[in-house]
Batch of 4 targets.
Target 1
Amino acid sequence: MSGAGDDLDHWADARSSMQQFERAATRVSLPWFGGASLLAVAVVLFITLGVLLDLSRTRLSDSFAWTRHGDAILLRLVDIRQSVAQAEANARAFALIPDPANVAALTAAQREWRTDEAALRALVSDNPAQQQRLDQIYGLVEARFARLEWFVRLDAAARAAIVAMPADRPSRTQQRRLSAQITTRLAAFRAVEIGLLDERRAFAERDSTILDYLSIALALLAPLCGVAGFYLLFQERHRRHARELQMELIHTQRLALMGETASMLAHEVNQPLAAATNYLSVVNRLAAGTGGTEKLRETAQKAAEQINRAVSIVQRLRNFIAKRDSERASESAALVVAEAVSLFGTLRTTIRLRTDIAPGLPNLYIDRVQIEQVLVNLLRNALEAMQASERRELDLSVSAVAGGMVQFALRDTGPGLPREVAERLFRPFVSTKPDGMGVGLSICRKIVSDHGGRIWAMPAEGGGTVFAFTLPGHDGDTAAEAA
Ligand code: ADP
């Protein structure tokens, strides 16, 4: 047994170092600033870029609006100057030829000036300084129009006298000065407006230039972040996949190691059992030969039977874990169930197991050992699930279902499937047990699907879980015939 002991030590060492390795592998955490974060940043940058472009467009249209506003003011100023000049020309013409049309034109020019003045006032309503300037212009223009009106209303002689006056007479000089003041004030008003317009345009242009630079920077940065994000995501997936493969390899190694160790143990146990059987046969013969007591012979016989039973169990265990190629043959479902249950019974015996095998089932063309492995896995899981349950009952039924299939269903009275594994139940390395490898159900699925069947799990009525799988019946071959 020393060989087996060494193997056990070896197994324990390997197991603990692999557990450490697994823990280290699952601890490998991804950088917090992963691909997903970069993609999120790219999306934010694209949104910001959109906002900036919109702002830039708004600033540009502001600039156009200001230009239109400035143009409107300048046009009104020109119109006002023209109205005044027009009125002066009409008054002069009337003095030469007293045509009433000139008076009408003067009145029209005055009307026009008032319309222009009101429009101009509305345009500069947001600028008190310009309003004040306009007030002054208003006073001067109105005074000029009043004087022109007075002039055309004089009689012809009075008008002729005024026209004949020397140009340096104070009243004539005063009128010229009034006219010049109007021109100067209008020019000053215009200069202020042009200055304002330039200032606003410069502001708008500066803002729009800053926004343009920011937009260009973002337009470069956002796709870069996007590409980098996708690259990192791809990398992370690749790393995760590599890690999964690594874990799978570790598990496979563990399984292989476990298989070898169990095989070795079975081999080691087999030899002393066989030897003991031989010795007991000798005892049996000796007791019979020397006329020893019947009781001694019976006991020895029973001991031999028990040891033989142990040998056959060990043999089954050996078959079960031996590495072997798939061997399919026509088997009866009842035999498979009986062997699996007896194999399982060697592991645990304290649970009540009820089997219900429907009569007249077709035979199955299967690898018996593999299907027994499926059953043992399901039985072992059910047992482990029921460890803390008050009621511990197992029902295993086998029946014929549609499509010529045979269905195995194992119902337990455990707590049901944990929510975190329910969806990924048959995937490898899914386990809620501290020492679980999480490969049992994935192996079951592989075996069942290799045999052309299907496996699934569902909650059992009244609590617990039902694991069921189907296998195709072997055409024209029933258990009765096979027997
Ligand atoms: P392992 O037994 O090593 O954990 P399995 O693949 O056999 O691996 O099982 C995966 C998981 O499925 C178990 O950890 C357990 O959470 C759950 N499970 C399996 N069978 C049952 C059952 N009968 N009742 C409740 N949960 C189960």
Note: The two ends are 41 Å apart (CA to CA).
Target 2
Amino acid sequence: MRVLITGGAGFLGSHLCDKFLAEGHSVIAMDNLITGSTRNIEHLAGRDDFLFIKQDVTNYIYIEGPVDAVLHFASPASPIDYMNLPIQTLKVGALGTHKVLGLAKAKGARFLQASTSEVYGDPQIHPQPESYWGHVNPIGPRGVYDEAKRFAEAMTMAYHRYHGVDTKIVRIFNTYGPRMRLEDGRVVPNFIPQALRGEPLTVFGDGLQTRSFCYCSDLIDGIYKLLMSDEHEPVNIGNPTELTIREFAETINRLTGNTAGIVVQPEKRIKDDPQTRRPDITKAHTLLGWEPKVSLEEGLTKTIEYFRHRI
Ligand code: UDP
């Protein structure tokens, strides 16, 4: 296949480039580099099965020749990034999704939309199955991302139902691993460098809010399987091992040998920050035969090694 990956220079986009190349496909990565970095794909430069195009996908996209699959991963994805880039976040989810779906339709390509557990908002059902419609504040600080992704899902289903495009939607839960941006403000790139510098880890709120962290290779494997499947409705991909942010901080301190502990910063917690989050992955398991394989300790150990070389 010849595959277009938007956001191809980002954290997940660049791992997808590697995965598709390793599976023998050729890859076009598109990115405007507002949160992505060419550092993530520099090892692919010069390959004749890889092409990088610097472009904002909210503008008309022209690709010469065939395209067999389009994966739309362009978007700021950390709360700090999307609050600093609210208009770009709304535009890439809305206008960008429209452009890439138009391209998929014109090329007869299959299409995969990167959606998110944020479509469930601060959930009132736990764990979250795909059938849950969510609890989102459209005008809160996270609304720019949550509603952009909800719109993107609606647009994707419309192109499927109205134009017959072969579309897929993955709802991605918290994912971590090498190539996360040091300064993106998320909990993993905040905690690990703090621990490696021997500083206390900054726990926002009371730290009793929960998340469930998936290692990037497991996520990429699930996305690849979903793209190859016949499913059109959303599928959760994530790791159901849930822990509080305090427990997560203690795990990182233990793995890095950091003795500085934690510092609780109640005021830093962003409004509407979900209190709990854990994917129900029954559908991915039944439909795709997928489940995560990498334990939290194993994934964190690899990620700590990455950040050790970056700080
Ligand atoms: N968080 C924290 N300390 C940090 C960064 C984040 O306690 O230095 C918390 C944040 O308040 C949230 C959780 O960690 O409850 C996950 O935040 P992140 O920004 O990684 O992503 P989210 O899951 O909220 O999209």
Note: The longest strand covers residues 110-116.
Target 3
Amino acid sequence: MAQIIDGKKISAQIKEEVKTKVAEYKNQGMEVCLAVVQVGNNPASTVYVGNKKKACELVGIKSLAYELPEETSEEELLNLVNKLNNEKEVNGILVQLPLPSHIDEEKVTNAIVPEKDVDGFHPANVGALSIGKQGFISCTPYGIIQLLKRSNIEIAGKHCVIIGRSNIVGKPMAMLLLRENGTVTVVHSRTKDIKEITKQADILVAAIGKPKFIDETYIKSGAVVIDVGINRDENNKLCGDVDFESVEPVVSAITPVPGGVGPMTIAMLMNNCVEAFEFQNR
Ligand code: GUN
């Protein structure tokens, strides 16, 4: 029987730990504060931003919501980011992506001071991770490391195969698994024979964005499978990049969708907000 890695339970634990820390700081008269900026009303973004605000409430982090109209100019957004950079009470800044097409996302991401970049998207934080220095780590891959560690799954010496090379998941995931002494391979859309490589994986991280793409023919018996996908299947039911029914019988551990990686992202965002607060008040 495969171990089902319970992201709901592990994310709740992490949020409890964050809540305890936030309460201690509150007792000392200090508040942890996250600014959340949304431009326009992309429905998915509205759901994500709403969940982030709810999580803040749960753990006691103050959240400042900036809901800007779709027509906001790049300059106006950069001015807001700049203002938040300079506000001492703001510990973390999150600009929800995607931004409307007339705004250069890279420019905005790079405008957030690295000390408040709780998403871990700024090149200074990406660079810090790749050379083993302290910095903010992208929440989803950071959450996956927590899932593995808190499920007592050894990473050191394991062959870790990541499918997908995005800046938000695939690339930081590779750096993190390497930092944990895994042997890392990244496969992607231009890889010649994906299956040949995934079949060697002790730990497989699927971040493809295609519903149920990975079936048992991609898997080595006894592997650990982490499913980052959030898709809809033919019946409009939520599903991952992994065909759970096909894969679960042959693996030693697997994350479900929903309830696996998903809840970890926000938990790690809350964790990063406290890290930002601690860094700024050290
Ligand atoms: N859009 C989708 N995921 C994310 C995320 O983790 N951070 C931000 N800022 N935008 C997103």
Note: The pocket of guanine is lined by residues 94-97, 119, 139 (CB under 6 Å).
Target 4
Amino acid sequence: MNNDLRFTRQCVRYIANFDLSELSIIKTDFLVIGGGAAGFRSAIEAGKHGKTILITKDKLGESNTLYAQGGIAVAKNAGDQVIFHVEDTLKAGDGLCDEVAVKVMVEEGIDRVDELVSWGADFDKHDNKLAFTMEAAHSQRRIIHAKGDATGAETERVLIRKASESNNINFLDRKFVVDLITFEDRCYGAILWDEENSRLSAIIAKATILAAGGLCQIYRHTSNPEVATGDGYAIAYRAGCEMTDMEFVQFHPTTLYVQGAPRFLISEAVRGEGAILVNENGERFMPFYHELAELAPRDVVSRAIVAETTKTNTKCVYLDLRHLDADFIKNRFPTISEKCSNYGIDISKDLIPVQVSAHFMMGGVKTNLNAETNIKGLYACGEVACTGVHGANRLASNSLLESLVFGVRAAKSAVNDIDIEIPNSIFSLKYKREENLSSNIDFNVFRASIQDTMWEKVGIIRNKEQLEEAIAFFDQYGDLNPKARSNFEVQNMLDIAKLIAESALIREESRGAHYRSDYPYQDNDNWNRHIIFARA
Ligand code: SIN
């Protein structure tokens, strides 16, 4: 649709002082930022054509991918077809998917999965053929998985091993990207922070692929690991990228609820294999909310859980697997079984307490089908990108598929930059901040305030008043003057929290994962379009 709504906002360009002529600089052809499926898959492709550096802010492999349980949706099962997978994805996306991008993902996804298998991915089998499970809002059993509920870890293992075989690819771990380097509308790499020696350095690249993952750590409760602080979104936004669909945050209905413990994903595949949801009184409630009951779209199940806990004045609902075969479920979900047993919960005998948690960002850095952003030399893929495949709500297990498909596409685009000349002026680029910035903030306290504000006011159910309160709170802070990795993360969290709250306030309707209690209905006449933000 061409009537997208565009907004600009003032935002600081760089968050650290630097003078590139004084920093240690590494030069490369391709820089990949992020070490999940999208990052590794793009590095493998880019590495065929030139020197590639893949950087991660934490230890290698630590990413949302690593913890993905459910699997990879792929139209390979007998009776399934590309068109069915496309239709399910479009339906979940609630009118905002880019249909061409969806077709690309679903079609090319088949090759990407075959390729993973040929590289040694050990997906679970039934009668020597790939085993397919069911997840919410899929019309077919089309989710492949590995070691029951450790699909992400297996995918990551295979991709890291494949990337390690290339002499052209180097990994740099524990390097935090502070900002992207841009000059005359083109990106030339990134400025890094090395926490070990508290120093800035730079990587100058002909092309940069942003694959820095998700952001759900900006919420108090999340299924995401601690690294998912939204750095990729923030550095892209500050560099001038268009950011779209930022109001669409997916909340996962079933994460383990143990008071005081971080939330832990209980895969939707558990419901796909027959688990039901019951409330405090032991009553099954999902059939009253949706004809697909426990396999209704995630946003429907999430809101039903909120409604049930409000009605019964309790803190959680429960997953009940007790009617399923005990050996089957323990073998099918070994990671979940072990995690629950650490808390004294036997998943075959006990109810599993669950609550809703922030899980996935559908929006992000706006890209076209070739993963190109509006900045030359900068490509985006994986969760940080908004390729248009998820629309207002992501279909379960489409994210690893998207990462693999658009990881390759990003690298193929980046390869076209192999012959560009890096201007000499890049090497003497400097940036000096204004010196009157306030730096009295306690970053740990402020991080928690952002998470609480997002959870309470920009969460599963939103309204004008609360969104305005959140924006007013965030607007009190601008440039925080960060000087350490955890502080840079807080600056990034603040920058993107504002974008999410503002986008959610502007969209005066309910659609997909965005639910406004003051506008509870979908409004196709006015809102079948995207909201796009960019730095002024
Ligand atoms: C899950 O296993 O429920 C999560 C999979 C996904 O988010 O697609």
Note: The radius of gyration is 22 Å.
